[in-house]
């Protein structure tokens, strides 16, 4: 399956991204079928070949969630934005009731299961 996604280029702490189309299972930093544009995250500038992007989408290519949101934001395609990444699990503070339940379970005497 072909995927339109970003491939990082640029220097350390100065990322620039290429908008590429390649096989989904291939490394995004290897050879791509075609370079469709570039994106600078500092200036939020997107240079894209709109006709080529629409051509590949018509042929059944998919997009990464980030590229999808970027193209919708720049009004190259129409649609709804999707969740690009899920937030990490934060350690939730234990509720006051939880600690009491745990202590209560620990203090209960265990019943031995002996059958005669």
Task: Walk me through what this model shows.
- It is a single chain.
- This protein has 116 residues and is an alpha+beta fold.
- It has a domain at 2-73: Ribosomal protein S16 (S16 Ribosomal Protein, Chain: A, 2-Layer Sandwich), CATH 3.30.1320.
- Helix content is 26%, strand content 28%.
- The protein contains 3 helices and 5 strands; from the N terminus they run ββββαβαα.
- The chain has helices at residues 50-58, 65-73, 96-107; strands at 2-11, 14-23, 34-40, 45-48, 62-63.
- Strands 4-3-2-1-5 form a 5-stranded mixed β-sheet.
- β3 (34-40) and β4 form a beta hairpin.
- The N and C termini lie far apart (65 Å).
Task: Give the distance, in angstroms, between the N- and C-terminal Cα atoms.
Answer: 65 Å
Q: Reading side by side through the largest sheet, how are the strands ordered?
A: 4-3-2-1-5
Which CATH class of the domain at 2-73 applies here? Alpha Beta
Q: Give the helices and strands as they follow along the chain.
A: EEEEHEHH
- Report the count of strand segments: 5
**Mean pLDDT across every amino acid position:** 84
What's the architecture of the domain at 2-73 in CATH terms?
A: 2-Layer Sandwich
Helix content: 25-40%
Q: What structural class results from the helix and strand content?
A: alpha+beta
Give the gist of this structure:
The chain contains three helices and five strands, in the order ββββαβαα.
